[in-house]
Amino acid sequence: LSSLKTEVIGRDIRVFEETTSTNDVVERLARDGVKEGVVVFAESQTKGRGRLGRIWMSPARQGLWFSILLRPQLRPTSVTQLTIAAATALFRAIRSQTGVRPEIKWPNDILIDGKKVAGILTELSAELDKVKYIILGVGVDVNLSAADFPPELRKIATSLKVESGQRINRAELAVRILQEMDRDYERVCSGQFESVAGEWAEHCSTIGRNVTIHVGDRKIQGCAESLDTDGALLVRTQHGHLERIIGGDVKLEK
Ligand code: BTN
């Protein structure tokens, strides 16, 4: 990781052998007032978590499990922009480092051939109408074999090794991801979200597809038309209404 050249993200890097969740470690650092840009990696997590309260499997040395602390001057409602930017950066890094052809699923899953290979968990702390800090937790299934996934996950999850047919150097991939994220963080903070969103939309397999989305108890069905300026997904329902989706689980229909 010593070859890393970035402005903000990764200027302070801490590596743990094992943690509960790297998001927890970064949250403690955030509360202690640590500057933005710190990145915490763990070789394994005992309580890795995904979006929507799911468990995130984090076996030792097989993947990249890390979290980034950011303190952007954004309104809490614009936080989706950062998630979109992080997904775009993750996409670029994975594509260039491994040669596989990934796609983005809204808002921030990276898929290969329809199976998930990486995800981002964004956690926000806000006060009144200001962001105090944001934690971006990134999980990439790098060198897991197919047999490392429990049977129920094999149809929906995969690894870069399985898809590319070769072991991937985790340190080189980590450097590339942090460099790409640093670049996109700067783009969002300097008001260039539109150009990031354009790049995101080009690689997002969700736009133009029929989707079913569960938001709490509500089920929304329709066609994912485009991305709103703040990163929300705009879905045209069968009744012709345009719904703004800011969270939830998207299922891509055939
Ligand atoms: C998702 O559900 O797609 C998000 C997965 C995020 C997993 C990463 S691994 C590092 C960080 N620590 C966690 O507990 N979760 C995130």
Automatic annotation (TrEMBL):
It comes from the Bacteria. It catalyses: biotin + L-lysyl-[protein] + ATP = N(6)-biotinyl-L-lysyl-[protein] + AMP + diphosphate + H(+). It comes from Pedosphaera parvula (strain Ellin514). GO terms for molecular function: ATP binding; biotin--[biotin carboxyl-carrier protein] ligase activity; DNA binding. Acts both as a biotin--[acetyl-CoA-carboxylase] ligase and a repressor. Biotin binds at S21, T22, N23, Q45, R49, G50, R51, K116. Keywords: ATP-binding, Biotin, DNA-binding, Ligase, Nucleotide-binding, Repressor, Transcription, Transcription regulation. This is Bifunctional ligase/repressor BirA. It is an enzyme of class 6 (ligase). Residues 1-189 form the BPL/LPL catalytic domain. GO terms for cellular component: cytoplasm. The keyword Nucleotide-binding applies. GO terms for biological process: regulation of DNA-templated transcription. Belongs to the biotin--protein ligase family. Its EC number is 6.3.4.15.
